[in-house]
């Protein structure tokens, strides 16, 4: 645990909230507002019917079973019990992990919130973390602000890292999905070298697990593998998100992993924002309870197919407008395509690769297309000829036009027009 985590105290109020559920107890504990003062009496949610997408089904959160009271009131730091229980069932369904005292599950305000609190719980200034190169740009500021050293290739003689951060399915930015053999090798290395000398932790940021659309079966998750190799659990902290398959605005993510680490994360939550939104959790639970596991499976199958078709349209437009001007590997999960621009290197480095930064940030934007240059996904800000493009939002016609515009500026950079 980090030094900061060791100084966190259990809230004198939140630490006792679970005692309110003891039958017969009359609680004078928490400063909860009286339910009678809430102006909202019920909430109705319309969702598309899975059997007939043109039809809608209304789900209602009201006084039945105290649902509306729970949705509008303070709740447990690590998530409402019903939602946590449902998500535990989900982890057993997808990863074969039954409940036991060694691990737990907590809900957060999106997986980014949970990643931040995990890094707080694990990292001291000066600690080293092993990362991918390129890496999800959203974690770079977190590591920088906490004084953590980000290392991509481990040098001989350097103390082992505290943990490895990786995105194993449909990686942001590369779109890469780690194959099964590499997962086993990474897990074996974590066990062999015991990252941080006494503990070995793999932080798995996995918002695209449910967006797999490859031709082969989805590779087994690290969370499942650690329970299968006969060497015990406690290696993996798994970060899941419903943002990509249900709603990004609900801000619902959940983390599964070693109980001591998740308890430390909950102490950070209790100090920072008390809990994830009760209302967002209630809306999410109403939908998941309505669907059941089979309904969620059907929905994510639809979503995955949607993004596979968007990927195919994007790649077709790439071939149409940038044939011979880019190199890429087709993703099998997620919503990103990472492609290399075949442009000349800077004048002072004739043997190197091109740099996409100026072309993407200036020339492409001036021509009406917006993307991200590869350099922002490297911890050291190194030059990169790569570009990350999201194919999730534009329709077929817009995608074709965006890549036509990009093709123009790439040809200009190559001196072809």
UniProtKB/TrEMBL annotation:
Pfam families: Aminotran_1_2
Annotated SUPFAM superfamilies: PLP-dependent transferases
Co-factor requirement: pyridoxal 5'-phosphate
Keywords from the UniProt entry: Aminotransferase, Pyridoxal phosphate, Transferase
This protein's record includes keyword Transferase: yes
Gene Ontology BP terms: alpha-amino acid metabolic process
Start and end residues of each Aminotransferase class I/classII large domain: 65-151, 172-406
GO molecular function: pyridoxal phosphate binding; transaminase activity
Family the UniProt entry places it in: Belongs to the class-I pyridoxal-phosphate-dependent aminotransferase family.
Name of the protein in its database record: Aminotransferase class I/classII large domain-containing protein
